[in-house]
Amino acid sequence: ILPQxxxxxxxxxxxxxxxxxxxxxxxxxxxxxxxxxxxxxxxxDDLYIDFGGKxxxxxxxxxxxxxxxxxxxxRLRLQDMELTARFLGASTDTTLLEAxxxxxxxxxxxxxxxxx
Amino acid sequence: xxGSRLERFGTVFTRxxxxxxxxxxxxxxxxxxxxxxxxxxxxxxxxxxxPVTSPSAKKQETVPEIFYSEDKIxxxxxxxxxxxxxALDLSKSNFVSTCQRFVDKYRELKSHGMLDKSSxxxxxxxxxxxxxxxxxxxxxxPVLAESRDPVLDLKLIDMLAEQQSAGTDxxxxxxxxxx
Lengths: 116, 179
Fold this sequence. Notes:
The structure holds 2 protein chains of 2 kinds.
Chain A: H1 4-13, H2 15-20, H3 23-27, E1 34-43, E2 46-50, E3 57-60, E4 73-80, E5 84-85, E6 94-95, E7 100-106
Antiparallel strand pairs in A: 1-2, 1-4, 2-3, 4-7, 5-6
Chain B: H1 12-22, H2 32-39, H3 55-59, H4 70-81, H5 98-112, H6 117-131, H7 143-178
Helix pairs in contact in B: 4-5, 5-6
C-alpha cells in the first residue's frame, strides 16, 4: 500500500484526472471562446496560429500589425475547433484540418486581471 | 481447407494436422508445438467465434458524452457572465481559468453547507469579486455606451421639461383666448 502523498501524485498523473482539470474542458464549447495563440508560421499576410487545440487556425494579418512574427502571442476568439462539412453524396464529413478563429490582437500582457 | 491460412477455419492445430495428413508438411518439418499440443490440448479449442452483431449491440457502440458534475456550474457561469475576459491558455495543462475558479469557489461554499442553491450563485460571484476577479455580466452594456446614456437621459429630461412648460403656456393662452 502506497502512502497517501504518493497516491495523490499518481492520481494527478492519471489521464482522466488531467483531462477533467484541463483548460480544454474548462473552456466548454469552442464557439466564442477567447484563447491565447502563438504564431508559428507566416506566409505573406496569412498567420498560422497554434492555440493548443486539435488544429491550428489561419488568420489574415490585420492592417498595421507588422509586428506579428513567428513566435508572437495573440488573442483569438474561436469559432470552430475543426472546419468540417458533409458534402452531397459523401458518406463521411470532409475536414479542412484547420480551426477557425477571429484574431483579436496581440497579447498585451494585461491577461493578468486578477489582482492578488 | 488444408492450405488455408485464415485463422477462422478450424484451429491452428486442426489446420497443421490436416496439412501433415495430406503430406504438405513433411514429418521432419513438423512444428515444435505440435506434439505438445497433441498431448496436452487446451481446455477451450481456440476456434474463432463470430461476435454477436445484433442491432441492439450496435447501438451501444456510439461514443458516450463526457460530462462532469462541475459542468452544471460551468453552464450557469457562462450563461450569466458570458465568455470570460481572460483569454484561456490551452497549452498549459495546469491553467486555471476564471470559470474554474468560479467552480472551485462554488464547491467550496457548497461544502460549507450554509447557503441554499439559489443564493450560492450570487455568493460565489461576490466572493470572487472580493478576491479581485472582475466578472462582467453578459448583456451588460460596454463602457462606451454607459458614458453615452447619461447624456441622452439629460436631453430627454430637458425635452420633457420644455414640453411641459410649453404645454402650460399653450393652455394658458387658450384659456385667455376662450375667456
